[in-house]
Amino acid sequence: MDAALKKDLYNPIDTIEYILTRDKVSFDRRKENELVAEVLGKWDNMLIFFAFEEHMRCLHISCLLNIEAATVDRSKMFELLALLNENLWLGHFSYWSEQKMPIFKHSVILQDDEELFCDKISKIIELSIMECERVHPIFNAVMRQNVSPAQALYAGAMVM
User: Fold this and answer.
1) What does the pLDDT look like over 39-95, one tens digit per residue?
2) Terminal CA-CA length for the chain
3) Is 144 within 8 Å of 101 (Cβ atoms)?
4) ∠46-36-80 over CA atoms, to 5°?
5) Model pLDDT, residue 29
6) pLDDT tens-digit profile of 83-132?
7) CATH 3.40.50.1220: does it fit domain 3-159?
8) Nearest 5°: CA angle at 133, between 127 and 135?
9) How confident is the model at residue 9 (pLDDT cuts 50, 70, 90)?
10) Quick one: which of 8, 84, 6, 101 has its CA closest to 46?
């Protein structure tokens, strides 16, 4: 098969579907280039969204933490995001205003000749879930218990 044709046919969402099926994770393939999975977490379920942008050859991963507060002090939220993100090696946390929930985001540029993609994306999914699990109690303290970001971060570090 021609390499250019092979590149056009490859969709990393197919690989993600394989990984999730293998790991017995429920998911919904919404479109050819989008998939959402529900992962049972330590604190609560998380939704993980995958989207592939063909022209940029970019795979985007978003993990929504199921923590919602009636009102959120945006200055506290942005302080917490800054504190959390300054020590991350992979991805970043953000606040999805529309859903009123924190979200972890990461994007990967795919190479045409990339080997071991399945192992790489499995590791990225695992690390994304681990990061969300790590910060869940911290977000919960700030969003639902009105704890200051620094206190929540320090208390979270002490527990982990």
Assistant:
1) 888 888 889 999 999 889 899 999 999 888 767 788 999 999 999 999 898 899 999
2) 50
3) no
4) 40
5) 95
6) 999 989 889 999 988 888 899 999 998 876 666 688 888 998 999 999 99
7) no
8) 105
9) low
10) 101
Contact 52, 65 (CB under 8 A): no
Hey, where are the domains in the chain? 3-159
Full-model pTM = 0.84
- Give the number of residues written for the chain: 160
SS3 38: strand
Structure tokens at 16: 């993600």
> 132 by DSSP, 3-state: which?
helix
Furthest-apart CA atoms within the chain: distance in Å:
59
Cβ neighbour number for residue 125 with a 10 Å cutoff:
22
Distance CA 89, CA 1 (A): 38
CB within 8 A of 98, min separation 6: which ones?
none
Q: Pick the closest to residue 121 from 2, 7, 18 (CA basis).
A: 18
DSSP 97: T
Neighbouring-strand partners of residue 62:
49, 105
pLDDT for 48: 95
